[in-house]
Specification:
The protein has 511 residues and is an alpha/beta fold. The chain is 39% helix and 18% strand. It is built from 21 helices and 16 strands. The strands form two sheets. Strands 1, 2, 3, 4, 5, 6, 7 and 8 form an eight-stranded mixed sheet that branches. Strands 9, 10, 11, 12, 13, 14, 15 and 16 form an eight-stranded mixed sheet that branches. Helix 4 links the parallel strand 3 and strand 4 (119-125). Helix 18 packs antiparallel against helix 19 (447-461).
Length: 511
């Protein structure tokens, strides 16, 4: 028996070295951790149970140099919570994907769905391995698997891109609920070398899929970090807001922050002059527990803030306009960002809080070229189909169709209230007066005075008291009572712990 045990130990110790000590050293010299080191940083001490350690490539002659076939998979705990975890092993065939690699990842995905466990993916690699996937017979077995395409947000998929990623790692990221990217890495369909051979285009890794591309153009990544330690921290922070699966509520967290705390400082943050900018993030900090929130896609569609936070210990999703960017007016990117976030929150039973300060949408001929009407309605469709509790607060202005997109009346919100500073109308008074009375003012003997009178009239019509008087909104609240109001109404709307209908769970990620 000792002989058999010794053989087993030797096999496993050798397998844990992946591609060997030289390649591990090379990974370190490049400034990166190995897959095993990443798992050790992510999971609770001594909690990782590995499966597939003794697996290897099924290609003849590759058995001795393909430990694990380029992927490390298993079960673990993160902050005491059971998860499944996989990490690419760059030391084995550069983390590329062979048939056994796929077999391991599919088995892990199957188990996550079967037992309702979050999936944490630490990814890098060059995609499908050649020549393993070459030929009609081999390639026919290596197409996208149903578990990935029909995931339907049953369990949270949380991914970090920690090295250059092409093909498979990119597909996993694109179908994940949360994606982090380590700065200095690339995430794209194919690498620069294949691109040059296939199309003749020459481009650097950074230009192809570096972090700035995803921050400014694609919106496919939710956060960016300077180090692997920060990346691991981001994954754990996001997991902390998520339920383990769609049939559970997000984790409640005790707080010493008084849920009825009066927000005395908030009146100094928001100017009463509607054209003056302020930082909506400061308003959010005042409202949420201990001033803490996690912003997603912070650099994409910056006129809209999407963030996870807690109010009275309960996880909430916040959608708020940012007057510091384009006066808070939403464009195509903001529409995509809002839609994506609504799908996330509705799928994982997270109530939504809307904080309005939006002058409308950024309309232009360029906006029409990127399908602005479709993107506005896509946001509205997601909102209309969502079944989680929704509470809407008009802080300063909510103009035009954007009033609907931000959860205005008739859009399914549990409660819609306004601050006394709110302005609600089809269009802003200045624009409305210019459109309707423009010619009349041109021929006026005293256009300045006439314009002032018209603006006063239109300003009165925009008052929240008009809507409240006809019970079209639920109340006008003291700004200092915003946290108290949200805490109280969340208790009623979420008190029974009802799981939503998840109508948006199969909405394609990123669409």
């Amino acid at each position: 028996m000792n002989h058999y045990i010794d053989e087993l130990v030797n096999r496993k110790e050798k397998a844990k070295l992946g591609g060997g000590e030289d390649k591990i050293s090379r990974q370190h010299e490049s400034g990166y951790l190995t897959g095993r080191e990443r798992i050790n940083k992510l999971v609770d001490a001594d909690s990782f149970i590995e499966f597939g350690l003794l697996a290897h490539s099924d290609q003849p002659g590759a058995e001795e140099k393909s430990a694990g076939d380029g992927i490390i998979t298993g079960l673990a705990k993160v902050d005491g919570r059971p998860v499944v975890v996989q990490a690419a092993d760059k030391t084995v065939f550069a983390g590329t994907e062979g048939m056994v690699y796929f077999r391991k990842t599919r088995a892990l995905h199957d188990y996550a769905l079967k037992r309702g466990l979050p999936m944490l993916n630490l990814k890098e690699g060059g995609g499908l391995r050649m020549p393993d996937g070459m030929g009609a017979d081999k390639f026919s077995q290596m197409l996208f698997w149903d578990e990935l395409l029909l995931h339907n947000r049953r369990v949270p998929m949380i991914t970090s891109i920690l090295g250059d990623s092409f093909g498979g790692p990119t597909w996993v990221a694109a179908t994940s609920d949360f994606v982090n990217q380590l700065k200095g890495t690339t995430m794209a369909v194919a690498g620069p070398r294949m691109l040059e051979v296939a199309t003749g285009e020459r481009v650097s890794n950074e230009e192809l899929g570096g972090w700035k591309i995803h921050a400014n153009y694609t919106g496919q990544v939710d956060s960016f970090t300077e180090s692997e330690d920060e990346s691991i921290k981001e994954l754990k922070q996001f997991l902390g807001y998520m339920p383990s699966n769609a049939n559970e509520l997000p984790p409640y967290k005790e707080t010493d922050d008084n849920p009825y705390r009066r927000l005395d400082r908030i009146v100094d943050i928001v100017p009463t002059r509607r054209t003056r900018a302020y930082n909506m993030k400061k308003v959010i900090q005042e409202i949420v527990d201990d001033g803490l929130f996690m912003e997603l896609k912070a650099l994409y569609g910056e006129a809209l803030i999407t963030a996870l936070a807690r109010i009275n210990g309960r996880v909430v999703g916040i959608i708020a306009n940012q007057p510091m960017k384009f006066a808070g007016a939403a464009g195509a990117k903001e529409c995509e960002k809002a839609t994506d976030f609504i799908c996330l929150c509705d799928s994982y039973n997270i109530p939504l809080i809307f904080l309005h300060d939006i002058p409308g949408f950024r309309v232009s001929s360029e906006a029409e070229k990127v399908k602005m009407p479709t993107k506005i309605m896509m946001w509205n469709q997601a909102l209309a189909q969502s079944t989680v509790p929704k509470i809407s607060v008009v802080i300063r202005k909510s103009i035009g169709a954007a009033y609907a997109n931000m959860g205005g009346p008739t859009m399914g919100a549990d409660f819609v209230v306004a601050w006394p500073t709110a302005e609600i109308n089809f269009t802003g008074p200045e624009v409305g007066v210019n459109v309707v009375y423009g010619r009349q003012l041109q021929h006026s003997k005293n256009p300045k005075e006439d314009r002032r009178k018209l603006l006063e009239l239109w300003g009165f019509d925009s008052s929240p008291y008009v809507a409240a008087g006809k019970h079209l909104i639920d109340d006008v609240i003291d700004p200092r009572d915003t946290r108290k109001f949200l805490s109280q109404t969340l208790e009623f709307s979420c008190g029974n712990g009802v799981i939503g209908e998840h109508r948006l769970s199969n909405w394609p990620t990123g669409f």
